[in-house]
Amino acid sequence: MKRWEREGVAELEDLNLPDEEHLKKGVAIIECIQEIPCNPCVDACPTKAISMENINALPEIDYDKCVGCGKCVEVCPGLAVFLVKVVDDFALITLPYEFLPLPEEGSIVKALNREGKEICDAAVKKVKKGKTTIVTIELPKEYAMEARNIKV
Ligand code: SF4
Ligand code: SF4
């Protein structure tokens, strides 16, 4: 049995990860690993980068087609999609955030890993309010594949 089945925590080996060139461009990373009837990410994608064999299948992403627009992050009810862009020594991570208070742009928050443990400080670069607010943080690039939430 995989760890996500026991504890609900995804591991990197469970995911389809982008390569370095895609990370420089900035792409969505889909961490949806449980087959459930759901597909708003497919419908939201303007470039048809996300596909599914059927409504119960897992979404697949074509990193060549992804333009990093973030629409799939906003619509995912499972809060399972993240944008990651690596610029020099830093990573910009855009993640869904549904708690209050919302972080303020320009503030420093704690970045959390998939288990909810604090891993480093992160600068809040952008807060886009909506049905699901999405927050863009900047942190050292070695945490690009670890940071998936924040603590305000
Ligand atoms: S970030 Fe935009 S282009 Fe990329 S998969 Fe999501 S919706 Fe599609
Ligand atoms: S919208 Fe989210 S939960 Fe639904 S299939 Fe897409 S990635 Fe998975």
Any overview of this molecule?
This protein is an alpha+beta fold and 152 residues long. It has one domain. 14% of the residues lie in helices and 33% in strands. It contains 4 helices and 9 strands; from the N terminus they run H-H-E-H-E-E-H-E-E-E-E-E-E. A 7-stranded antiparallel sheet has the order 1-4-5-8-7-6-9. Strands 2-3 form a two-stranded antiparallel sheet. Strand 4 and strand 5 form a beta hairpin. The longest helix has 6 residues, at 20-25. The radius of gyration is 15 Å and the shape is globular. One iron/sulfur cluster is lined by residues 30, 32, 38-41, 59, 76-78, 80-81. One iron/sulfur cluster is lined by residues 28, 44-45, 47, 49-50, 61, 66-72, 83.
Write out key terms for the chains shown.
152 residues; alpha+beta; seven-stranded antiparallel β-sheet; two-stranded antiparallel ribbon; 4 helices; 9 strands; 14% helix; globular; binds iron/sulfur cluster
In short:
The protein has 152 residues and is an alpha+beta fold. It has helices at residues 3-7, 20-25, 40-44, 71-75; strands at 27-30, 50-51, 60-61, 81-87, 90-97, 108-112, 118-128, 133-140, 149-151. The strands form two sheets. Strands 1-4-5-8-7-6-9 form a seven-stranded antiparallel β-sheet. The chain has a two-stranded antiparallel ribbon with strand order 2-3.
